[in-house]
Amino acid sequence: MAVVRLLVLGMVRLKGRTHGYAVHQELVAWHVETWTRVKPGSIYHALKQLTKEEKLNEVGREPSEEGPGRTLYELTEAGEAEFIQLLESALGSFDLEELGTGVAFMECLPRRRVIEILKDQHRRAMTTRNGLEAMAPKFAHVRDAPHTSDLLSLWSGSLAANASWTRSLIQRLESGAYRMSEG
Amino acid sequence: MAVVRLLVLGMVRLKGRTHGYAVHQELVAWHVETWTRVKPGSIYHALKQLTKEEKLNEVGREPSEEGPGRTLYELTEAGEAEFIQLLESALGSFDLEELGTGVAFMECLPRRRVIEILKDQHRRAMTTRNGLEAMAPKFAHVRDAPHTSDLLSLWSGSLAANASWTRSLIQRLESGAYRMSEG
DNA sequence: GTATATGTAGTCAAGTTTGAATAGTGATCA
DNA sequence: TGATCACTATTCAAACTTGACTACATATAC
């Protein structure tokens, strides 16, 4: 998923120069496991893959006083671009794990940009929800699609709850809450 | 994910003897893409993997009038057991994709069993939600965990919405809605 | 002093997902 | 007729996830 890439890029960006284990520790400190599951193996894979794509540079190994040596990574310019792109796309998603990850890093974007993306996300969520509500009556009598109306209302309710949360976040941002990036 | 395995097992169970393309077609007819994404590649992989685990049997190939030949599969006894287990676990999950998949097949279980599982799921969802609410004040002032209270309220709201939907489904089931499995 | 637990740092194999590619069969149309 | 399009049916490589394992270092208990 894009979630792991965003988390890893974001952490390396935040720390400037770091290693896989530290990324994992920091994610645990952030309690990311409450909104998404990120296993150590995925972190190490992402580090290698992003290095292969030249979004990260491997900048040598560092000995450690409390265990084996560590492999250090740094963000490249391409990595910075990738980070921004993944971040914007995460804030525009209405998948909870992606959205949550985007929110965790939203202060890396300028306030007005975040508001813009969230408003667009809210609009699309409502459009999708209306679409679901509209298709409900059409499938009420289709035998081969089981429990379609229940499933539609499950998704519709979830979208509505998330949209309501997004609305309140937009309000907090518009009233000046949080320290955001300049520029 | 367990979602694909459940969908594939369920479809093969429903059709008695079928092939990958038909499974895909039926999932499209069910509008499964509104609540989860299932690519053809995942279906074919699941068929092969489940066959390797003897949850399915490959029972030969069938020529087709409108294209290449098809590989046919059937459910084994172990497959039936696996289906029931995945189904019960899906109905007990509060991951939307899993829960949705469980609901699509819930009529394969007896009414009282489904109610029992859903009540347990609802109870656990509420417990989780209370846990989230309880941890919110503790992390309000922790600088290194960004936007934790926003993220907690996002999840909390989502859990509440799903729990409310589950409650209403339980009510419909208790008042005798839907044709369910005997036994 | 040595087993044993705990924390640090990472690798690996197996399973899974994804998007693109392959290949057969009619239907349309110039 | 033969070019091209759409539908049928599947395979494949690459990326990604997962759980189990390796290996180093320190503390602690016996």
Walk me through this protein's architecture.
The structure is a homodimer of 183-residue chains. Helix content of chain A is 64%, strand content 10%. By secondary structure, the first copy, chain A, is mainly α. The first copy, chain A, has 2 domains: 2-102, Arc Repressor Mutant, subunit A; 110-174. In chain A, strands 1-2 form a two-stranded antiparallel sheet. In chain A, helix 1 (2-15) crosses helix 3 (40-52) and helix 1 packs across helix 4 (77-91). The interface between A and B is large, with 37 and 37 residues. Chain A binds a DNA duplex (30 and 30 nucleotides) through residues 1, 4, 19-21, 24-25, 37, 39-42, 44-46, 49, 64-71.
Give the structure's gist in a few sentences.
Chain A is mainly alpha-helical.
Helix and strand arrangement:
Two copies of one chain form a homodimer.
Chain A (H helix, E strand, L loop, with lengths): L1 H14 L4 H10 L10 H13 L3 E9 L2 E9 L1 H15 L4 H9 L6 H29 L8 H27 L9
Antiparallel strand pairs in A: 1-2
The structure holds a DNA duplex (30 and 30 nucleotides).
* Largest sheet entry of chain A: 2 strands, antiparallel
Q: For the CA atoms, what is the radius of gyration of chain A?
A: 20 Å
Secondary-structure element string of chain A = HHHEEHHHH
Query: Main sheet of chain A: which strands, in order across?
Result: 1-2
The number of distinct β-strands of chain A equals: 2
Helix content of chain A: 55-70%
- Content of β-strand of chain A: 5-15%
Oligomer: homodimer
Global mean pLDDT of chain A: 95
CATH superfamily of the largest domain in chain A: Winged helix-like DNA-binding domain superfamily/Winged helix DNA-binding domain
Count of the separate structural domains of chain A = 2
CATH topology descriptor of the largest domain in chain A: Arc Repressor Mutant, subunit A
The CATH class name of the largest domain in chain A reads Mainly Alpha
